[in-house]
């Protein structure tokens, strides 16, 4: 059996490792972003680690779209970028906390558009035929 001093030293080492892992995870998360472009390239959206939009770029082709079409395209493209960054967050956190209750907590607290919920399935294909055959409802 370990002495109390040895137990305390081992516990201190565990805490130091946990703190180092938390710093490394935080640093990795702060550097990530997700970017997606619409099927024909009219819209490109970049989101940060939380899924918040950081940049949006519209090409001249976006001017040819009706306002509702453009709004739907921006929303769909932003959701694709959020799914991308959400998958990155889950991957990084899996490396640090492993599969278990902590990772489940991360997944449960992802925004719905992040697409990390197993029941949501894979993101839709990035092609025109799929996009127009399966329009997304933005406003109800």
Automatic annotation (TrEMBL):
GO terms for molecular function: DNA binding. InterPro entries: YbaB-like_sf, YbaB/EbfC. Keywords: DNA-binding. Residues 27-38 have a biased composition (Polar residues). SUPFAM superfamilies: YbaB-like. Residues 22-52, 108-130 are annotated as: Disordered. Residues 111-120 have a biased composition (Low complexity). Signal peptide: none annotated. This is YbaB/EbfC DNA-binding family protein.
């Amino acid at each position: 059996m370990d002495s109390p001093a040895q137990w305390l030293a081992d516990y201190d080492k565990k805490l130091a490792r946990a703190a180092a892992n938390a710093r490394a995870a935080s640093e990795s998360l702060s550097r990530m972003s997700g970017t997606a472009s619409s099927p024909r390239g009219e819209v490109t959206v970049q989101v940060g680690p939380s899924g918040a939009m950081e940049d949006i770029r519209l090409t001249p082709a976006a001017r040819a779209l009706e306002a509702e079409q453009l709004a739907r395209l921006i929303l769909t493209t932003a959701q694709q970028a959020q799914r991308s960054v959400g998958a990155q967050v889950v991957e990084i956190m899996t490396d640090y906390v492993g599969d278990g209750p902590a990772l489940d907590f991360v997944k449960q607290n992802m925004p719905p558009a992040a697409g990390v919920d197993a029941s949501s399935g894979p993101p839709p294909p990035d092609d025109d035929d799929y996009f127009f055959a399966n329009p997304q409802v933005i406003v109800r």
